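Course assignment 3, question 2. Fill in each field.
Student: A.L.
Task: Predict the tertiary structure for the chain below.
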Amino acid sequence: MYSDKIKLLIIETDQHKNSQSVLDHIRSIPSIDEEAAFEQRLNRFLETRGLTEIPENLEEVLAANPYVHPHEAPIWEIEGYASEELYVADQYKRNRASEYPSYADQFDTIFHVGVDEWKAQIRAVKDKYPKPDGIGI
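Answer field:
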């Protein structure tokens, strides 16, 4: 019923990174009625825009309404850093934190093996991820 171009435009009105792969996926599943699937997608698109019937210029309407991906903030912004440089400068902290044993395991090491062994474990992580030059003690 709809051309591939129209189907791709319908897909592009929803959140997808690659409309052709979505179309290919739909076609790869024998149990999916392709035409019915696109009819449902088109009806949802029309409903969200307050349209009650398929416009004569459907291709133009679809092309003018692609899904707009929201701004994705960079990781440094999400993590609360003022700049990417500050985020990068603290990478050693994140690396260390991911490799330090849990507090419970650290206390267990101190209790069972002693402070010197605990210090050696912590020192190994610190040596693996040293502070960059110019950062405090």
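Instructor remarks: Residues 34-48 form the longest helix (15 residues). The radius of gyration is 27 Å.
Grade: pending
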